[in-house]
Amino acid sequence: MKKRNYLIQKIAFVLLPIFILGQSINNFDVEAEPGYWGVENSDNADPALSNTTLTTVTDALEGAGALQIEYSVHNSESWGGYTKLFHYANPFGEGTGSPVEGTWILAPEAGALQVGPAANNGEWWSNTEEDVTTRACFFDDHYVFNVDGSFQNVMDGETWLETWQGVESEQCGAPVAPHDGSNAATWEYDDVSGEVTLTGLGAYLGLPKGVNAGQLPDVDVPESVTYMVTLVENVMTVVIETGTGTFWTYRLHAVEQPSALSGSWVLSPEAGALQVGPAANNGDWWSNSEEDVTTRACIFDDHYVFNVDGSFQNVMDGETWLETWQGVESEQCGAPVAPHDGSNAATWEYDAASGTVTLTGLGAYLGIPKGVNAGQLPDVDVPESVTYSVTQEDGFMTVVIETGTGTFWTYKLVPAPLSMASNNSWMNDDFRTLIEMRPRDGGPWDWSGYDSLSFSYNNTVTQSIADRVHLRLNLSDYAEIADPLNYTGLGEYYYSFHYILDSEPGWNTVTLPLVRNDDWGGGGFNLTGWAGETGNGELDKHAIGGFHLEFSIGGGGDGDHVTGTVVLDDFKLTGSLNALTNPGFELEDAQDDDLGWGTAIGGGHAEVVTDAAMAYGGESYLSIGVLDNWAVAYTEDIVPAQFGETWRFSGFGKEVMGDGADGAAFKLEAKDGSGTVLGTTGDVYLPMTGEWEHHHIEMVMPEGTEAVTAVVVASRWDGVEVDYAFDDMFLMSMGILDVVPPVAVGDISAVPASFYNLVTWTDIDGEDGETYHVYASTSPITDINDSAVDVVATNVLEGAQAAVHYLFHPLEDSQVTYYYAVACKDASNNVGAAGSSESSITNTAKGVPTISMTPPSAFAADGDLGEWYDSGIEPFMMGVDDNSFGTPHLGFGSVDDDNDLHGTFFIAVDNDYLYIAAEVLDNVVVDDQESGWWTSDVVQVCLGLYDQRGPKHVGMERGEEPDYKMYFLPDGAYSDNGAGMLAENGDGNYHHEVFNPDYVLEFRISLDDLVIDDDVRFTPANGMRIPIEPMVHDNDGEGWEGLLVMSPTNNDNAHSTCEVWSSTWVGDRSTVMSNGEEIVANEFALHQNYPNPFNPETTIKFSIPNTQDVNLSVYNMLGQRVVTLYSGELQGGNHIAKWHAGDIASGVYIYKLTSSNKTLTQKMLLLK
To answer: What is the model's pTM?
Structure first.
């Protein structure tokens, strides 16, 4: 029997309270508040051709209004393009995480500045790569958008000057007024129009010369300049039309903020946020009470602003808390008193090593101005600077200052509250807006109370070119985001696809389930992997970070655009899981009618009151109160429940009369078929205040349960009269919470077959709906998370009891030996301990092509593949009936035979370049990218440039193990990771030639140029195992009709997950070489680290023949130990250690593996 707790008030998997009360996400009845919508275009889109215009119209399906969207989408990318609207749970707003906020510099690359007849066009002038160096004084200028709305041009004494600024020739020099950053300036971002306006004489982005009226000095220097901006991740594209027909385009990159302190902070609104005592975090002498949060509200709303440019501000909005030493008769709220009024300029500096922050500037302070380092004011002089000790944890900043000797002031700060994207003006009588579904702390929305999502649309103006644009409703899942309150990205990003923009005018409704089912036709959500973070692969309804309305155009970057108009209404959650028939007390409800609510009163009252001004939502609420007695309201609904289910009862409540002490409670009762109570939570008292707040309790149903009853309780017996209000109640089953993992799987064995082993096991008795994960290793498996353990299959369905393990080896057939393990994941996602096979199995692995380490010496990207065929490099062959891996497969559609489509690939790498060559036999070659590049005849290659051991990546990753996707069109080779064109046809690195039938391509790219963002540059080593998936798309003139792939599990989803990619090796070995020996588990061996040289992390592999004590340490060239990577007992086998060098200086280091009777050493080079 699995143990269960019968009362759960806080349970691990429940991350956030459910705030779903009404169904509406947005009824669009009134115009959106500023900041509600953000906008974004695809990278190369012209804002004039890629945009949306929003209007609230009265021709609505329901309510007073609807949202009209006039869209224009620019076919600007190799795959088409998009424009989209988005709204996040943490909305952008002034000083609250606007995408513009922060410090920006010009991108240090060719084309960062362009002048031409259109946006993103450099026909007339564009900077070169050489300019980045020769004009370095310009490329290090900073454009600072401070959190308080101020703007600064920071040039550090030097910038690029032109002759109109008074110099004889263009040169680096001292900034010239008014473009020297000396004048005060502000910034304002309109996220609907995508415009940034800088106000302040001489403030500018990019080059000061270009302003709205024309170009300086032909026009006067304006008081303000407005730019059109497009933001994609950390890149801002800025466009300004200077006069008529001349466009200046600047590409800016975000500069990382100075530290985690950057931003605006306030005192935490809770008891103990301010403390004074004999030690840090000690309030023995004084500590603020919960009541102080209200009575001293003027201090709890003071802002302490750490601007990204290093300036600091005390912002008090005209009022703060004053003490008698500041000249008032008694402690009170009042106008700030100099010098502690924020009027003096101040700066901040954070020392991460010591954990201190220093404010410099007369009167600058944190918490309370009275406490300074030398003592307490007014006993000491006001200092020029104050230093505080700070620690940060879980979003809080704890600030400590010792004032003199032995007296410690402690302040607890939290990030300043985010501005609301919407307010109560959005509410109507029946529903609440999206913002009301957001937890009070500003976290993600919890939609787990519903099973589907719907919206209505009226396609008033069909798209100007049929079948080109479709609507995508996308969701950001923040469940795997460590700090969602301070995160502004996409999260795990789910798409839904709606081909509705050719529909005839008239209202229609789309309803789609809130599940990931990888549907492409609007029947659910699809984790495509095109954008966002790697997560758990499941749409987590409890952690929705935002939604996006994306208008996506198909095409090949031809420059055309498509327009249309659609009206949206009644955007809501449907399929409520609320078991209550009258959750908001809005229905007529008689006593003892087995419906809605009943009451029982020992004394006092319990009744429904109709008062829209008082109700949390709708017209009515429950009023309940007592004096020395009790009263309850309970559910009369017959709500079926069963043993093991967890039920949650929640709702909003406030104290109308009382003293804040216990008096209001929730209770859940489990009952059998006759109504006998089998178990109860008892009265779980709620922390009530004078504001509407959300409360909830949970209970697991005991054995014999057939129904559940929820109860609202008022009870006081101490002579204090209390009165409470409750509204919008929610009662739902959370399902049967199984927190106990399954037992280990048994009867694991394998049967050898031709180039594969069939792994078998026996399903676990007593489990239902479980799946199985299958693992393999050349050594006995004791830990399935060991990097030496491969994943054979995941989520094998109950009843299958078998999985195929394909066996491969570099180049030649070879005998291989494997051990197996199988783990069970039950229906509640608990994973049990893995069961292991009792013995190994030996079979023949198929020799497969590898990535050669010796590319053709006479390589030339000319379309003649003779040097490849003569090189001895074994090619990857892909046909309909066979391929090099013996796993022929079509990822999509159909291909007739090898005459219809067949691919031959050569892949090589050296220390400098990656090489790819392909010859494709295709009876009809068609370059038709109108619906996207993938619908033409095109080669696509996915590969991970790292030594892949253990499970493959779920999504595309960057950093130490980067995954790359590329495709090869007639005009150029392109990145499908968003890095644009990798090479142009005929540039010496790429050649594409069509013979029709058939075509060939040759490609080379520097390993340095392949790097994206924080990718670790690839250093090839013989024996590295590489995830790879070559693919060939087929179009014989009637659209995309087939996709030839290598992996038997690639069903046109290799673009979204690496799990379905094939694998090969670099060179001719299956493991990385060291000293000419392969890693085997029966020897004591220490192998060369990789990468080498490295910065800052490297991997060290070693093996030991049996269980023994070992020590692996790193030493400098003086013989001094730098770090011990491992010391202790290890089992025999292969092992891996990683060293992150962090702040260690560059140089040669020795790493040493020592046992009781043997020592091995190797050298490695750290380069920074």
So the answer is: 0.53
